[in-house]
Amino acid sequence: MKDATIALHHGFKSDPTTKAVAVPIYQNVAFEFDNAQHGADLFNLDVPGNIYTRIMNPTNDVLEQRLAALEGGIAGLAVSAGSAAIHYAIQALTRAGDNIVSTPQLYGGTYTLFAHLLPSFGVEVRFARDDSAEAIAELIDENTKLVYCESIGNPAGNIVDLQRFAEVTHARGVPLMVDNTVATPILCKPIQFGADIVVHSVTKYVGGHGNALGGVIVDAGTFPWADYPEKFPGLNTPEAAYHGVVYTEKFGPAAFIARARTVPLRNTGAALAPMNAFLLLQGLETLALRMERHTDNAIKVAQFLKAHEQVAWVSYAGLPDHPHHELALKYMKGKPSAILSFGLKGGYEAGVRFYDALQIFKRLVNIGDAKSLACHPASTTHRQMNAAEQAKAGVKPEMIRLSVGIEAIEDILEDLQQALRA
Ligand SMILES: *Cc1c(COP(=O)(O)O)cnc(C)c1O
């Protein structure tokens, strides 16, 4: 099936008992065992089935299957937020003394996790000097357990050369983990270019309506974990945290996602609420349609701003003069999602006046909502930083970041026009 069809149908046929067509919300914690043997078989992971919603839930299962199918992976794991998905995916592969290698420009929450929290647990994070594959390759050593990047960076909108990343990481026996939140599998499927693990904040475009947090990990099933028994002991030796199971023996290509579920999620509990899984599935049903409109609107907004005399600069990889335009053509067919940033000639003061005058664009810090959203980092998310720190973080005083929604383009442009006049 094609993406638009998968998003509507994959992983669920009408409910067998009630014939309900919408995915039911299994607002339920524990599931009954037929008898002691059935319970034992479930706990041994010998038969499929449900035990407890912290580990699995039938509503969440549909979201997991659907996103895995869209990404071209073999299995998924849904959790309570994108941040938890990133943390659990890394926790499933690392322990104190290990390192991971990352691109330098990342979503703010991920940067903080990498720069401060993971090191406090003994996992070193090596930030490359830039987002080239060469800079990544230089930092990989025998203790490197994964390489991390965002297919489209949030908020910078930079695009990573996924195929080259996969070449340099695989040459060193290291898996590639890609945050595909901003692109979504509709615009880019990192697994096709060699990614081994894809993580998502489904809070953003997948849910698409700004009403539920969620995260999903997708396992490509491609990385040969069993070939590296010493590098990945958690997957190749008996797991003390789960009945002594050896994940590569029991789950084969799905070893990684099985460990992510039964060790980090089972033991720390950032489980996705079934109600939120339902809302996210509702959003996912129209993802393909929305991304078409999001990207059509984004390029029109970029062109409009670029041609406007009050605008100093526009950064959007869909524009031919952007340094990553070639990468946008290769990985996203020239449609690098709908996040763009720009600056007004009047600097900070003009930026604030423009921002305050917006009427359709919502002033907030989120992306990927069907509604158009705007953020002025210098006065909000990055206001505690001084000018030098802001510059290092890539934030200019006049910079406005837009997440272009799916409203009628005439209304979007009119709102921008009247705010520019203000
Ligand atoms: C928002 C976001 C996250 C974090 O997701 P939450 O669902 O807010 O926890 C991670 N990565 C990217 C690229 C994001 O935009």
Automatic annotation (TrEMBL):
An individual GO BP term: transsulfuration
Domain of life: Bacteria
GO MF assignments: cysteine synthase activity; O-acetylhomoserine aminocarboxypropyltransferase activity; pyridoxal phosphate binding
Family listed: Belongs to the trans-sulfuration enzymes family.
UniProt-listed NCBIfam families: OAH_OAS_sulfhy (TIGR01326)
Pfam families named among the record's database cross-references: Cys_Met_Meta_PP
Name the UniProt record assigns to this protein: O-acetylhomoserine sulfhydrylase / O-succinylhomoserine sulfhydrylase
Lineage: Bacteria, Pseudomonadati, Pseudomonadota, Gammaproteobacteria, Pseudomonadales
Alphabetic keyword roster: Pyridoxal phosphate, Transferase
Entry cofactors: pyridoxal 5'-phosphate
This protein's GO CC annotations: cytoplasm
Residues where N6-(pyridoxal phosphate)lysine is found: 204
Transmembrane helix as UniProt keyword: no
Transferase keyword on record: yes
